[in-house]
Amino acid sequence: MKVRDIFGLNNSLKSLKLLAGDDGLEKEIKDIEVCEVPDGVYWANEGDLAITTGYFIYDGKNDLVTWIEILHEKGAVGLGIKTDRFIKKVSPEALEKANQLNFPLFEIPVYLSYSDIMWPVISKIFDEKNFINFAVEKCNDELLNISSKSYSLKDVTSIMTKYIRNQFVLYAYYNNSFECMMHFKAKNSTIQLVPNIIRENKEKVDSSGGFFCTNIGNIKIWISPLRTQGEIIGYFSLISHDESHTTVDMKLAKLAFPYLIVAIFLEIPWNDLTYRTKDEFIRTILYKKYINRVKLKHDAAYFNIPYNFPRIVWILEMDAKEEVEKVLEHFYEYINRDDVYDSRYILFENNKLICINKITGQVNEEKWYQGLCKEIQLKSSGSKLKIGISKVAESLDRLPVAYDEANFSLEIGEIVEEGNIHFFNNLMVYYVLYEMCRSPVLIRLYESTIKKLREHDLKNSSELVKTLSSYIENNYNVYKTAEDLFIHRNTLYKRLRKIDNILDLNMKESEKRLVLSMSLKLNNLYNNDLYGGDSYD
Fold it and tell me: Which H or E run contains 355?
């Protein structure tokens, strides 16, 4: 398959836009590689077509030029970039380099998922049998990965949408009624039609060992019940306009069925689908227990809560529940004296206060939170406290994400940065790395950099890790770093040369600096008991 062929592989891929390197369109694609870490380009193989969001290259125009050069040297045949997310526009320097190297560089619309690109290409490269085995193995690995965590319905269905190419609909079934939990590319008319098909053929559908099938015009509708302990709690429906992908999609769906059953069972409040209080409704949102967006909007209107409104979630945590109760009066007094924050909802959770604020103006946030901490500590005889603050959530359905961000900031913030006020905005790289920490790619990255320095420090009683950390924190300023470490500049230069020699790299290169910065963050995660005491040393 040639690079030129990808642009006409199907209707979705016709939206890809070639930016540069059109003289390289005759190159053969052997595989497709997602590159989302700086070192990802170094593992590219000859014939790989690379795709990326550009997360690790968006802050420097010359970094993309370096990526193109490395990919070309590795024998990769092209690079696709999702624009309008991290990289708003490809730089003229990158376009010039791609044209110079005859290296196809193309733009991927933000609405196209990786699966929209990967599977058509891979299925074209492999024969049908190998393609099915490849897709099933990849999907199964991702499902097994989330099974070790506390996963939600959204986690499961997001994996399914990456691999299943036909339309599908998921229903919860309770009180003899159907609730659409999620759908992928299905039309409203189809979503409403499937429950009627089930009712008309319920005995056949419920007794089918696999999928019940019926034809509606030129489409086939496949339906399978989801059971737990002998009870049907939902139905999964696959809608196919042709049968070219149906076999693999059924295999993939069956892999996900156990996870869907658990997620449906946990997420629907089966005995009581109404909220008695506004407080209960807000908690339902934060804990990801609402059924779907339509119901969420309906219930928000009932409680007179605006749906589309920017809010933040911040959590104040103290040593004990009793300590929180002691300072409540002063807490309310402080947050009510500032009209920049319009406090709407405050929830209690053991030794935490969960605050959801509608943002109505600008404020020096850190200074505001520092004032809150100072006042509460004065009233609580110096009791220890910390605060985690989320990014802005633009609507109610984003509050669970903001709640997770605030909790993450509480958990990780005090370990990887100083102070007791932790903004998720300052911890975003840690968040990405934390989710991917067990990836062999990141472990290799750490082992080839900071682990080597730690081993040298341990063996020679040196301080190379500390030196590198200070050098990066001081933005690679030799004078400030030497001053912070209380050493002469010549001593610092010797240490930096030693680091370069041990790691066999040049810290003057921006890409190497990014790799070292990431590796130091991995060092903080791997060596602070964040993984149940596991260490990669």
Answer: strand 352-359
Ranges assigned E (strand) in 44-153: 48-52, 78-82, 105-108
Q: Put the strands of the sheet holding 311-318 in their side by side order.
A: 341-349, 352-359, 311-318, 385-389, 421-423
Q: What is the DSSP string of 208-276?
A: -SS-EEEEETTEEEEEEEEEETTEEEEEEEEEESSSTTHHHHHHHHHHHHHHHHHHHHHHS-TT--S-S
pTM: 0.48
DSSP bridge pairs for 393: 311
Residue 1, C-beta contacts closer than 8 angstroms, at least 6 positions apart: 28, 29, 121, 124, 125
> Which residues, given as ranges, of the chain have pLDDT below 70?
37-40, 56-62, 85, 127-129, 131, 175, 229-230, 244, 268-275, 290-295, 337-344, 360-364, 381-382, 528-537
| Bridge partners, residue 354, by sequence | 315, 347
Tokens representing 335 are: 């947050």
pLDDT of residue 138: 80
Residue 430, pLDDT score: 87
Please name every residue paired with 347 in a beta bridge, in sequence order, or none if there are none. 354
Amino acid symbol at 532:
G
Q: By the 8 A CB rule, do 107 and 89 touch?
A: no
Cβ atoms of 259 and 147 closer than 8 Å: yes
Tokens of 514: 């990014």
Residue 80: strand pairing partners = 51, 106
Contact (CB, 8 A) for 491 and 471: no
Q: Do 268 and 174 form a contact (C-beta atoms < 8 A)?
A: yes
317, 413 Cβ separation under 8 angstroms: no
Helix residue ranges per DSSP H, 7-91:
61-74
CB 399 within 8 A of CB 313: yes
Dihedral sign (CA 44, 50, 56, 62): positive
Per DSSP, helices labelled H in 287-398 are 293-302, 321-326, 328-336, 365-379
Contact, 161 vs 113, CB < 8 A? yes
Q: How far apart are CA 521 and CA 56, in angstroms?
A: 15
